[in-house]
Amino acid sequence: MNRIKNVLILCDAFPPAFAPRMGYLCKYLADLGWNPIIITEYLPQNIYNDLAGGQNVICINYYFSKNKIWEKIKYVFVFFANILFNYKDFIIKRKASKIIQEKKIDLILVSSYRIFPALAAYTISQTYKIPFIMDLRDIIEQFPNNEYISKKTPCAKLNKILSAIITKKILRQRNKVLKNADVVTTVSGWHADILSKYNKNVQLIYNGFDPDLFYPQQASPTPAHCEELFVISYTGRIESREIKDPSLLFEAVAGLSAKKKIDVEKFKIRFYLTDEKSKEVVKKLAQKHKITEFITISNAVQNAEIPQILNESSILLLLANKATGENSPKGIMGTKLFEYLAVEKPVLCVRNDEDCLEKTIHSACAGLAASTVEETEKFLLEKYAEWQQNGYTHQAVNREFVQQFSRKRQAEQFVELFNKLLWK
After folding, report:
1. How far is C-alpha 421 from the chain's CA centre?
2. What is the DSSP letter of 2?
3. Model confidence over 8-64: pLDDT tens digits?
4. For the segment 217-230, what is each residue's pLDDT rounded down to a tens digit?
5. pTM for the whole thing?
6. Orientation of helix 118-128 relative to helix 87-102, angle to 10°
7. Dist CA 349 CA 318 (whole Å)
8. What topology does CATH give the domain 223-404?
9. CATH topology for 5-208+407-423?
10. From-to residues of CATH 3.40.50.2000 in the chain
């Protein structure tokens, strides 16, 4: 009988916080002969409670505190200590080393969206001669205007100086780790092309959907399945309009409303947003286009509640921006896209990224990546007419294409890499 193998996973976030990629991987690892041991930073979010149970997770709280003054002091200390001597990696490395001394670890997997905690993974891999895989969900090259830096000072000049220092340091350290990783995994073809400059063994493993949660629930065209409202739904966050810009949709809705082709009592856009910054983006744009009566804004909901929201929607909104040009978002293919595909509802992507999102939506026969107000209006009216006739909407997606994005299949892809490394 084969021994269950241990993989030590170091990651910047793990459920119930955001970034569910590692959470879904761990859900399926046990059935594939691997036992995950996770070390991560503590974050207070609780969106993915359904993925948090039953896992061996060690959380390191770097600065969060009930005392907000003390929390700010600790945050500033950690921020500058990290710049000066990689404080966060030092702490997580110390914890990981203790585990390695207590248990047999067969493999190290580090998952990150900038660099932390890849330095820790690299160091312990070298120290204990354990192979490691570097998984990058996002990279800083994909963000316009240094959007990857979430917190900034009130001084624009200081922000520019700090951004330059942080960017140079991250790229130098990340690329050193990349060159020494046994395998690099990432989430889009664009990311793979960038990362392959530093490591020739880059494997593409997309984000995806959990087949246990996300599937079409529209059983049959009976009155029980007819919705009272035509609803366009969006769940998540809006980092900035440079990355996700809903203005094309808002302009189209304003136009259709002025032409009296949609009824404000029946036509709604619902946003389920994770933070106040996202809410402000929606509020300001809605006011600008004079469509506030069409829009409702709610707090983000638990991941387990999202499938019902998606299935009860008429259109699923995917926010993006044009990916061509130097200062534009690149290669962003988040979990949301694949969960939308799985429930077989029409997807509207605004604005068309003219890249990976457009290609995926087209290949999946999932809806529209819109570049103009006119085509957005046409798509809305087509789905609105379908809803008026049937009481709901449905999208006949290419199921064979969509199934490749199952989280279960992605866990199998990771395990294939795990096993190849052990057999080398």
Report:
1. 27
2. P
3. 999 999 999 888 999 999 999 999 999 999 999 999 988 898 888 888 999 999 999
4. 864 444 444 568 99
5. 0.92
6. 40
7. 4
8. Rossmann fold (3.40.50)
9. Rossmann fold (3.40.50)
10. 5-208+407-423, 223-404
